[in-house]
Amino acid sequence: MNTQKKRVLSGIQPSGNLTIGNYIGALRQWVEEQEHYECYFCIVDLHAITVPQDPTALREKTREVAALYIASGLDPEKVTIFIQSHVTAHAELGWILTCLSPLGWLYRMTQFKDKAAKQQQESVGAGLLNYPALMAADILLYQAHAVPVGDDQRQHLEFTRDLAQRFNSLYGETFVIPEVMVPKAGARIMGLDNPTAKMSKSEESEYHAVYMLDSPAQVKKKIMRAVTDSLAEIGFSDDPERAGVNNLLTIYQALSGQTGDEVMQQFAGRGYGDLKKAVVEQVNSHLEPLQARYNQLIHEAGYLDGILARGAEKAAEMAEHTLNTVKERIGFLPNRSRR
Ligand code: AQP
After folding, report:
1. What distance in Å separates the CA atoms of residue 98 and residue 130, rounded to the nearest whole number?
2. Residue 9, helix vs strand vs coil
3. Which of 50, 68, 212, 254 could be bridged to 127 by S-S, CB 3.0 to 4.6 A?
């Protein structure tokens, strides 16, 4: 019997304050998966710099994200946690895959189109366009079988699969073709102030997102002000007019672990005010213990650094093995120097 666990890899950019979208769409599923898979979770700082970042804030956020991974329940004894830039194979394979990425594929990516539209056209960095090739490298270096992400990353995963197939057919079987793993409830949490747009950590408006480190009072204020509609009828719906209520129900369902039917029964005949209060309670009951753990961890710099150093060592071993195979297949001479 093959007892080898399947492998997963995923990451989050230290590009701002993590939201409950990141928590529900990504972190929570990772915590479950650590029991069943061999897991690699990175803090993707190379991705973060595809849009301008302040160096001091980037350092601070990178550490914060590492602490939030552990505070959310990732066990460093079970999973490998590391910083992407500490494993140089990511940038190297990223470049090789950039050279194999057709521009047509890259220009089609919605994330590129959305983020580029927020900047002056001539100042959009080439890294933003090439982001999916680097993401493909992150995944393929570890021969990951599955990638747990929110719905917004599906298109990048398709890109990774296409690119891996392209490499395999040009140079021989090299990469495992990864599957996307999206949560059943909460794969796309929407902005509280604009429920037709994804909740995003880099969106600046005050009532857009609940952050994982928001106080209970902030959580309450933001959720109680969330946009709903005038129909006063609670129900899941894909009608854009009803996106606000749908979003609140989705957050509730994802965090309570109930089925859609159970949620509907619970709120049948009740008003939006009741729904909002229940969502506030759910969110705070998840965030409060997590924040208590975070507040300890963030002051234990030595402990965090140790985890990240061990993680980088373990990840580099695996990543370099794959990278060396790739280099050989594409015709690079082996490096005989000592370094
Ligand atoms: N709103 C969301 N609902 C569900 N899942 C989400 N994710 C992000 N937002 C939501 C998931 O979180 C993981 C990390 O995402 P990322 O940091 O790599 O970048 P992103 O997808 O672009 O997330 P953000 O918060 O919108 O970041 P910025 O604003 O910096 O671009 C991914 O698995 C993602 O699907």
Report:
1. 6
2. strand
3. 50
For residue 318, the CA-to-ligand 1 centroid distance in Å is 26
The CATH number of 216-296 is: 1.10.240.10
Question: For 317, how many CA atoms within 13 A lie in the half-sphere containing its CB?
Answer: 7
Assess whether the C-beta atom of 201 lies below 6 angstroms from ligand 1: yes
pLDDT tens digits for range 37-89: 999 999 999 999 999 999 999 999 999 999 999 999 999 999 999 999 999 99
Mind listing the pLDDT tens digit for each residue in 115-162? Answer: 999 888 888 999 999 999 999 999 999 999 999 999 999 999 999 999
Residue-range domain boundaries for the chain:
7-182+300-330, 216-296
| CATH superfamily for domain 7-182+300-330 | HUPs (3.40.50.620)
Residues 6+ positions from 280 with CB-CB distance below 8 Å: 219, 220, 223, 224
Q: In this structure, are strands 38-43 and 7-12 parallel, antiparallel, or unpaired?
A: parallel
